[in-house]
Amino acid sequence: MVESSGFDFRLTLVLLQSTASKTARLCLKPPVIPSRQSRTMTSNQKPERLNFSNTVFAQSASRLTECPADTCNEVAFVGRSNAGKSSAINTLTDQPKLARTSKTPGRTQLLNFFQVAEEKFLVDLPGFGYAKVPENVKKQWEKHLEAYLLERKSLRGLVLLMDCRHPLKDFDHMIINWCSQAEMPVHILLTKCDKLKSGARKKVLLETSRDLASFGDLVSLQLFSALKKTGAGELKGRLQSWLSPYIEPSVEQSEELPEDPLKDNS
Question: Which residues make beta-bridge pairs with 57?
C-alpha cells in the first residue's frame, strides 16, 4: 500500500500474452475509492506565462529516487512505444531534436525530464508494447514506472498518446481507469491525425469522446499531428493550465480550441 500520495491502492503491472507480441498492461486493484488529491501549486511557485520554446533537457532518471526534488509541477507523457511521445514534445517546444526520436519503437528507456520553467517539467516516460529488450529489463521499467505513478507528488496530469487510427487499446483503458481512480486529469492526444482525411478525423474524435463521456471533465482529448503541428496550440493551453494554472492561455494557446465534439449544433 502507498499512502504518501493521498490515496490507497495497489498498482501492478502484468504482461499479457498475445499471438504476436507481449503487451504491458496496468492492472488497478483499489480496495476503496481514493480520496481527492490536492493538485494546486506549492507555495514557493509563482504563476507565469509559459514559453515552451524555452524548454531544455534537465536530466534522466532510471528510478524514482533519481528524479528531481518532489516539490515541483510536472506533466508526464505516456503511451505505447509507437504513439509518438518524443515527437509530440519536440513539436510542442519547436525543437526537433530536444527529445530523442527513433524509427525503432521503445528506445526511451528512462524517465526523461524537460524543464519548461523553474520547477516546471515535462516528463517523457518509457513506452509500452514494442521495445525489443530482455524480459528482466522490461520488468525493471515497469517497476519504476509503477513507483513514479503511485508516489510522485509533483505529478499534475498525464498526457496519454494514442494513434488516432487505433485508439483505446487495452493499455489506454488501464491508464484512463487508473487516472479516474486517482482523480488524476488525463489529456488524450489522438496522434498522427494527418494520416486520416478530415471526415475520418472528426469521426474518430467524436466516437472516442462518446466512449469516454462517463469520465466527465477528468478526461479531455484532441487531435494532434507532430508532422503538421496540428493541435500544438491546444496542447500548450492544456499544459499551461496544469503547470501554471492561474494564467489565462495566450492567443496562440487558445486559437485551436475546438468546439465540444459532443455539442449538438442543430
Answer: 114
d(CA 115, CA 135): 31
- 134 band by pLDDT with thresholds 50, 70 and 90: confident
Which position has the grid cell 483503458?
Answer: 173
Convert the pLDDT of each residue in 67-96 to its tens digit: 999 999 999 999 987 888 999 999 999 999
Strand order in the sheet with 219-223: 56-61, 111-117, 120-124, 73-79, 155-163, 186-191, 219-223
Whether the CB-CB separation of 75 and 124 falls below 8 Å is answered with no
Contacts of 135 (CB under 8 A, 6+ apart): none
Pairing state of beta strands 111-117 and 56-61?
antiparallel
Neighbours of 56 (CB within 10 A): 10
Domains in the chain with CATH codes: 51-254 (3.40.50.300)
Model pLDDT, residue 108: 63
Dihedral over Cα of 161, 163, 167, 168: its sign: negative
Q: What is the pTM of this model?
A: 0.78
Instruction: Specify the DSSP class assigned to residue 64.
Output: G
